[in-house]
Amino acid sequence: MKKGLDYINEWDAFVQAENEAAFHELYCHYFKYLSFIALKKGFPVNKVKDNINDLFLCLWEKKGQLNNVVNFHNYIVSSFLRKLYRKENLEIDESMFVETVPGLQTYPSVESQYIAQHTQDDLSRILKIFVEKLPDKQKQMIYQKFYLGLSYKEISETNSISINTVYNTIYKALEKLKIEIGKENLSAFSLALALLSLLCLIYFQKIS
Amino acid sequence: MQEKDIFNLLTDEGFCNYCLKTNADDVEYWENWLEEHPSERENIESQKNLIILLANETAAQVTQSEYQKLQRRIQLSKKNNRKIFPLIMRWAVAASLIISLSFGYYFYHKAQNNRQIATTISNKTAPGSTKAILILANGQKIELSAAANGTIATQSNTAIRKTNDGRIIYDGDSKSLLYNTTITPRGGKFDLTLADGTKVTLDAASSIKYPVSFTGKERKVEITGQVYFEVAHNAAKPFRVLTRGQTIEVLGTHFNINAYDDEPTIKTTLLEGKVSVNYLGINALLKPGEQASVKSGVSDIRVKAVDTELVIAWKNGLFRFSKTGLRSVMRQISRWYDMEIIYPETLKNTDLFEGSTPRSANVQSILRKLEVTGHVKFKVDGNKIIILNK
Predict the structure, then answer these.
(1) Class of A111-207 per CATH?
(2) Which value does ipTM take for this structure?
């Protein structure tokens, strides 16, 4: 599992050789890491995404001058927090923060890689196409719910919608997925079953 | 089967937490549940797999679409930079010069006016400063921050001189063995030069007892709290530091000792030269960059390599943390700002703090940084810092 400072090679490749692939790797990691931190703090989702891209645009433009950054992880997270809070009129002029964010799973975990390898191609393909076709809002919420593990309440706050709308949106998305899997006539009976109970689960939670 | 489905439904949040491993209780609960219902394992596993696959796929796509937006902005800014930037830059430089000059002038005047007011308002939360008390061999106490510059006392043949920058220097060669003690209060820090030229810096709530002049075969001092030494080289007279039952023997070197009573271990860190640490009959020889830790009453010395910059950050006017727990952070804050820390009955915070911040800031601004970055809240009440779970 890779986290924060394990990306030192990517950082070096980016800073010293302006390697775009390394920049992409860093982006993929920190996009999730930073959005987790900020969404947990209740910042609106659009502001969070804008600030992450502002930060990476800065990094890209300053890449030649980043050689003297001692701890890049500190640097990235503190620059991000500064950007995020500046607009809230909150002063943070120094870098200090937690390296280990409790609650954020580092992906891809060993387990999820294992699962991906042992899943039928059919299912991976269906999932890929399915997610591609999802409207942005639904994609966003599935990401927040199932990847970042935010609670329904947190999702409703960060997207400024009601908890009910969050339930419904996710429910609808999963229902679509069930139909897609059904269409393909997958023999993965247990998967369909799993999905069914997932649907019920959301449904019941909504009424309870 | 039916029963389990409904069961699932009601505990969705917990089940998600189990899949994502975001909550130890939920993971434990589901693992126990699986132990008891082995026949359901396959079903539960496939649910879990689906959630993880869906999560990964969605995360990858969401990230990718944001990355494409970023790429477009990078392209755009490349184009714009070439055309507009130089012009804007010229104006921006001119404008910012004018603005900063006029602000500077304004604040300079304002500061002049405010200086008198500011000194009369005492602020409990201000940081520590240069202050210490000197206890002479005859018991006389001298407050060093208040003492005038120049010779402040003479004992035997040794003069004690205070320099313009606030250091205390011992000059001369007395024949008799007289001991002085310098103590810094909480919120104080002090620099001192001993009769042999050894430079000593005391952190807050620390002390050093030393002879006015080193007459014997060895140079022996006793310390408490945290002290940084730059020992003057003298192979003929080894330098010995005693603290909480530990002896450190030196020839000529730079090192730091952290021996606060409320810290779990005594830490001796070597920056240059060579020292030997002795505790309860055990010896350890340190190389530069190494740190010896000793636990009170345990006859064992642990040696490991450390970041020495981190250890002596206090001497350079910084708080520096590297994977430092909240309690350790708060002990340092408590000593420097002379404040009492009140913990909640059960402290939920397990964050490790990382980063640095100047010790010259007031306590509120440091607490705010900790709040922003960690899962903890503070309330300042008089000279108490009350910690609340977030």
Answers:
(1) mainly alpha
(2) 0.78
